[in-house]
Amino acid sequence: MLDDFMTRATLAGIGVALAAAPLGSFVVWRRMAYFGDATAHAAILGVALSLALEISIFPGAVAVALLMALTVTLLSGRGYAMDTLLGVLAHSALAFGLVAVSFLSGIRIDLMAYLFGDILAVSRGDLAVIWGGAALVVALIGWRWSALLTATLNEELAYASGIDPKREQLVLTLALAITVAVAIKVVGVLLIAAMLIIPAAAARPLSRTPEGMVVIASGIGAASAVIGLRAAYVLDTPAGPSIVCVAAASFAGTSVLRVVRAGMAGGRT
Fold first, then answer.
1. Residue 221 near residue 18 (C-beta atoms within 8 A)
2. Secondary structure (H, E, C), 68-118
3. Residue 52 pLDDT > 70, yes or no?
4. Interaxial angle between packed helices 192-203 and 33-53, expressed in degrees from 0 to 180 and rounded to the nearest 10
5. Cβ within 8 Å of residue 180, ≥6 positions away
6. Which of 5, 13, 42, 147 has its CA 20 to 30 A from that of 176?
7. Domain boundaries of the chain, sorted by first residue
8. What are the pLDDT digits (tens) for 175-194?
C-alpha cells in the first residue's frame, strides 16, 4: 500500500495534522503565532547544516528550531518588544539559512521543496520520521496537558498550584521544534505556521472545551490534507499550498458560522 505515492503523501499530511493540532491550540490560546513563524523560518538553517554535515534533515532542523525558540524565550522581556524581536530573528534566520544553502557545493538542493514542501516525494523513511515525531509531540503535550492549560490560563494560578510556567513554556518550545522538523517535508518552512494556526483557529468556534478544540482541529487538519492533496492532483496545483488553502477555507466557513450564531443569539435577546 505504501508503494503508492499518494497514499504516502496522505499519511504524511495526516501525521503532521495530528502533531500540529494540539500544539496549534496552545499557539492560538497564548497568541504565539509569530513565535511559531520564527521557529519555522530558523529550520531552513538547520536544513543547510544537516546537508553540510551529511546527516538527516530531522535532527538538524530540530536543533536549530529549538535554539531559535530558546533564544526568543531568553531575550523576551529584556528591553525588546516581542513583535520586533520575533521579526528580526525570523527573517534573519531565514536569510542566513538561504545564504548557507548557497555555499553548499556538490549537493543538489531543491530549495522550493524546503520552502513550500514536497509532500508528493515523501518516502517510507520520511513517514516513519513524521509519525514518530507526531507521536512524540502528542505524548509530550498529553503528559503535561493539565499543567500546560493551567499555565496558559493564569501564571499566578500556576505558581499557586506548584507549576512553573517557564518549564511549561519549554515543553511547548520542544514540541514546536519537533513539529517544525516533521512538517518541513509536507508544507515547507514558509507554511508550517499556517498548519499550526489555521486548523486550531477554525476549530475554536465549534468547540466548547479545550479538549474538544484539539480534537476538532485534528479533524480539520487531517481533512485539509486529504482534500488539499486531491485538489492538487485534479487541478495540478502545488500540494502544500493547496492543503493550506483548504484549511483557510474551513476557517472562513467556521468564522461565518460564528457570526451567524452571534446574530441569532442577539436576535433572541
1. yes
2. HHHHHHHHCCCCCCHHHHHHHHHHHHHHHHHHHHHCCCCCCCCHHHHHHCC
3. yes
4. 150
5. 36, 39, 40, 43, 61, 62, 65, 189, 192
6. 5
7. 5-190
8. 888 888 888 878 888 788 88
